[in-house]
From TrEMBL:
Location(s) in or outside the cell: Nucleus
Entry annotated with the keyword Nucleus: yes
Record's function text: Component of the Mediator complex, a coactivator involved in the regulated transcription of nearly all RNA polymerase II-dependent genes. Mediator functions as a bridge to convey information from gene-specific regulatory proteins to the basal RNA polymerase II transcription machinery. Mediator is recruited to promoters by direct interactions with regulatory proteins and serves as a scaffold for the assembly of a functional preinitiation complex with RNA polymerase II and the general transcription factors.
Molecular function via GO: nuclear retinoic acid receptor binding; nuclear thyroid hormone receptor binding; nuclear vitamin D receptor binding; transcription coregulator activity
Protein name per UniProt: Mediator of RNA polymerase II transcription subunit 1
Domain (Mediator complex subunit Med1) ranges: 57-325
Record's keyword annotation contains Nucleus: yes
Family to which this protein belongs: Belongs to the Mediator complex subunit 1 family.
Any one Pfam family match given in the protein's UniProt record, by short name: Med1
GO cellular component terms, A-Z: mediator complex
Domain of life of the organism encoding this protein: Eukaryota
Keywords for this protein: Activator, Nucleus, Transcription, Transcription regulation
An individual GO BP term: cellular response to thyroid hormone stimulus
Length: 341
């Protein structure tokens, strides 16, 4: 059917109906929740147009801020509800919710986050994103929170996956505190700490570990104290898998528990302390890390840990992308490139 014929059919169908009825239908279609919760499918043309319009508008009123919050929520597959007073927006899922409090003029006053079964806590990172009108970062944090529960099964299974992540985080933090002195600096923690420099999960920010820093960066930190050069970091999280894994439901390491050799001494992973879940603990890099295939095979053979998210790429293409990443934001192709050696 041609576009003109289709439009003619639509006109004939709705020409006898009042405009208010058509308007209700449009709002109904826009308010339908996306499935799955974090969908990678392209939005409808109408939603895409609405998003572009909202991006162009200045959020100077309570109404416009609420509209933007509802739009971001729908993009991430979450529900948004406005309180009867019109000054609080609740962004909800089956496992967590975010409470955004605003003034009558549209200024964001407070943001609270609550996971299933937990009391709401103030979330400073989400608050700063909204005050700076950085809705992309706000939406990315909502997406990270949703990904914590992307585990196959019902709400009980998803909750157990979250409890397992909490147990891992407590053990990692206990290891981080072992043999740690009060005056140790961040670079020393990265180079000599048992787990590197660890930042616990707070609000919408996941736990991250800085585990490597180059000699050049160490020298830069020494010459410019407080410059806070950034080394290589990973984010600690949990992800769904196709097979079952035994994950802890409670910490396996005491606050100051260590063996005779100074290494952490863990409790055995018994049936009472663990649960079988279709999930696994995951370390995610902030940026892709180039590794040779032989090195990957060696790591998987020695540790028994599978490395996911792999993508093959020519070495020269990685070098070009790394060198030009600040000058060119588009995907670079080196198929027809010429190199001199």
């Amino acid at each position: 059917v041609s576009t003109n014929a289709l439009m003619q059919k639509l006109r004939l169908k709705y020409q006898q109906r009042p405009w208010t009825e058509t308007l209700k239908l449009v709002h109904f279609c826009m308010d339908k929740r996306l499935r799955p919760p974090v969908s990678k499918a392209p939005d409808s043309p109408l939603c895409s147009c609405m998003e572009k319009i909202q991006r162009a508008l200045n959020d100077r009123s309570l109404f416009s801020v609420m509209n933007r919050l509802e739009s971001v929520s729908k993009q991430k597959g979450l529900n948004a509800h406005v309180s009867p007073s019109g000054t609080i927006c609740y962004i909800t899922s089956d496992m967590f919710y975010t409470e955004v409090q605003l003034e009558k003029g549209g200024k964001v006053v407070d943001v609270k986050l609550a996971h299933l079964g937990e009391a709401p806590v103030v979330c400073d990172d989400l608050l700063q994103h909204l005050r700076m009108k950085n809705y992309d970062a706000f939406g990315k944090t909502l997406e990270d929170l949703s990904n914590l529960y992307q585990i196959p099964g019902n709400s009980e299974m998803k909750a157990k996956g979250y409890f397992a992540l909490q147990a891992l985080e407590k053990d990692l933090y206990s290891m981080y505190l072992l043999d740690r002195t009060q005056d140790v600096n961040r670079v020393t923690e990265v180079l000599h700490g048992k787990v590197g420099h660890l930042v616990p999960r707070t609000g919408g920010a996941l736990m991250n570990i800085e585990f490597y820093i180059t000699p050049y960066q160490v020298l830069e930190e020494e010459l410019n104290p407080g410059s806070q050069v950034c080394g290589t970091k990973v984010v600690v999280t949990v992800a769904g898998t196709d097979t079952l894994h035994k994950l802890p439901l409670s910490p396996l390491l005491g606050d100051s528990q260590a063996g005779d050799d100074g290494h952490p001494d863990f409790l055995p992973l018994t049936d009472e302390l663990s649960v079988d879940l279709p999930a696994a603990f995951v370390l995610k890099f902030h940026q892709p890390i180039p590794m040779s295939s032989s090195r990957i095979e060696e790591i998987q053979r020695l540790t028994g840990i599978q490395i996911g998210g792999l993508k093959l790429a020519p070495l020269h293409e990685l070098i070009v992308q790394s060198a030009l990443k600040e000058k060119c934001s588009e995907d670079l192709s080196t198929d027809k490139a010429c190199f001199f050696v």
